[in-house]
Design a protein that fits this description.
The protein is mainly alpha-helical. The chain has seven helices and no strands. It is 62% helix and 0% strand. The longest helix is centred in the C-terminal third of the chain and has 15 residues. The radius of gyration is 16 Å and the shape is elongated.
Length: 128
Amino acid sequence: MTPFGLKMRDLRAERGLTQQQQADYLGVSKAYISALETGSRGRPSGPFVDQICAWLGLIWDDAEVLKMLAAMSHPKPTIDASKCSADAVYLANLLAQNIHRLSVGQCVEVTAMVERHLQIRESRDMSG
């Protein structure tokens, strides 16, 4: 499940809507909606996320959160560390080779630390 897929599923469930209803509205298959949720398809395009926001009736902050989560939901991200320090190259490879070993709690902890260091506003609440 991707952060975007989890949030989209939760928002749909809160409204009592189904994947089939979403697929019908958006003109895609139910399988595609499921694939977006699970991460077996890449992240959705910006205009497609806008359509999802409209279908769910999201405005302002809620729509921005869903758009941000979509941007951060590529299931196979790549990191170009070619112009970075040796330490940054090591970090990129360390994460790439070991991310599967981290628990959910450890991922949250590392993410929070990186967001703090980059002074990123925490707006990625995926729980609903």
